[in-house]
Amino acid sequence: MKIAVFGSSGFIGKNLVKSLQQSSRVQEISLRNPLWKNDLNEETAVFINLVGKAHDHKGSATEKEYYFANVELAQQIFETFQKTDAKVFIHISSLAALEEYESAKPLKETDHCNPVSFYGKSKREAEKWLLKQKLSNDKKLIIIRPPMVHGPGDKGNLGLLYKIISKGIPYPLASFNNERSFISINNFIFYIQRIIQDNNNLENSIYHIADNETVATSEIIEIIKKVENLKTPNISFPKFLIKGLAWIGDFLPLPLNTQKLKKLTSNLVVSNQKIKTILKIDTLPLTAKEGLELTIKSFKK
């Protein structure tokens, strides 16, 4: 089977291509090449779209930049897919298209969308546009919403947390208890492989993928300390004090503000039951804690 992967230069793309190449012929397509459409193989059966702009930690990216990367480029790739003989279009969206900070219950695909950032809003716009497109009976559109994806080579928030805790700095938010969904790159790839192999019963729709288990931020701290062989105690400052400092951080350049506090301490759980039921998936290659331990160990290198 021939698979075209768009956006293969990033963390997810590199890992996905490496894995898919073991059983399929993979073509990496870069939209930086103005003639990329001419590079597509006529025998390509699957398009996987990873192109997009992720979170901007420096805060310098504009709404227009997000819209171009996450909506307009997705439209170009999909319109090209429509003109080819390829049968399956897998679009990687994000949980941010649905919810970015917190939820009191496990989030399902049918829940009301509440994107907040330019990133989340642009991801949601791409979803809506794709779902409005008409497909012939022999073509299929699968939109995937993962929570935070992590693994060796990841340079995201887990790496920043590791840098702090591995220095022996006590974790100051131990008074907060939370549950969050993540997905290791191993489990992400497993889902994609299963979709490619067995998509007959999947409808043109959105599907959530995630590790089977949730993890608290405090548990991630303990995994880091275990990997680093640290005995640093956690600190349980009163919640009202932490929330007050976070509120001040919204106006002054402090290392904590209300948004960062929500990401560290609130519940944000994803239900992956829909796709698991359809594809008859019982277990995943890694538990949530096993995946996190592999990722954190990779930071030591």
In short:
The protein is an alpha/beta fold and 301 residues long.
Overview of the structural elements:
This protein is an alpha/beta fold. Helices cover 39% and strands 12% of the residues. The chain is built from ten helices and eight strands. The chain has a six-stranded parallel sheet with strand order 2-1-3-4-5-8, sandwiched between helices. The protein has a two-stranded parallel ribbon with strand order 6-7. α2 packs parallel to α3, α6 (217-228) packs across α10 and α7 (239-249) packs across α8. The relative contact order is 0.14. The mean pLDDT is 93.
Secondary structure layout plus pairing:
Layout: E1 2-6, H1 11-20, E2 25-29, E3 44-49, H2 63-82, E4 88-92, H3 118-132, E5 140-145, E6 148-150, H4 157-165, E7 182-184, H5 185-197, E8 205-208, H6 217-228, H7 239-249, H8 258-265, H9 273-279, H10 288-298
Parallel strand pairs: 1-2, 1-3, 3-4, 4-5, 5-8, 6-7
What descriptors fit this protein?
two-stranded parallel sheet; 10 helices; 301 residues; globular; alpha/beta; six-stranded parallel β-sheet
| Amino- and carboxy-terminal Cα gap | 35 Å
Q: In angstroms, what is the radius of gyration? A: 20 Å
Helix count, DSSP H or I runs of 4 or more residues: 10
Shape descriptor: globular
Average pLDDT, all residues? 93
Reported for the largest beta sheet, the result is:
6 strands, parallel
Uncertain residue segments: none
Structural class: alpha/beta
Helix-residue proportion:
25-40%
| Strand segment count | 8
The proportion of residues in beta strands is: 5-15%
> SSE string, helix = H, strand = E?
EHEEHEHEEHEHEHHHHH
Strand order of the largest sheet: 2-1-3-4-5-8
